[in-house]
Amino acid sequence: MGLRRILGAVAAVVLIALPALAADLTGQWKAEFDTPIGVQKYTYEFKVDGEKLTGPASAEVMGEKRTVELKEGKIAGDQISFVEMLDMQGQQIRIDYKGQVVGDEIKLTRNVGDFGTEQLVAKRVKP
Fold first, then answer.
1. What residues of the chain score a pLDDT lower than 50?
2. Which of 17, 19, 87, 114 has the most CB atoms around it within 10 Å of its CB?
3. 23-58 b/e with 16+ CB inside 10 Å = b?
4. What are the structural domains of the chain?
């Protein structure tokens, strides 16, 4: 077997294994970030099934606490995305999250309806 074939086989195995390694997000992740309406504190309770991401998020905003079920969660390698629906005075606002997993951190961009975009970092809570 030639060196090229061996390297090709090794590369194929690594590419197949990488998504499984990067997708280990199960557990609690916390984020605290400043927004136009003040500091927001989130705890995400991620559950992973293959490339599917589910779970609740607990938020504290302006002294008010709420819990929401995350929707449309996906993991592809080190990329993550999910949706949070926010009920604001009877109107549903879609918050789209997209980010990258880097070790015990997830660097996220959060698009809040037509209101704006925010950057945040969620950190894994050690058991």
1. 3, 7, 9-23
2. 19
3. bebeebbebeeeeeeeebebbbbbebeeeebebebe
4. 3-124 (2.40.128.120)
Closest C-alpha among 80, 85, 114 to residue 97? 80
**Tens digits of per-residue pLDDT, 13-27?**
444 444 444 448 999
Q: Report the C-alpha gap between 64 and 61 in whole angstroms.
A: 5
- What is residue 85's predicted lDDT score, i.e. its pLDDT? 94
What is the model's pTM?
0.79
CB 18 within 8 A of CB 110: no
Specify the residue for token string 């996220």.
108
Both tokens of residue 62? Answer: 């302006």
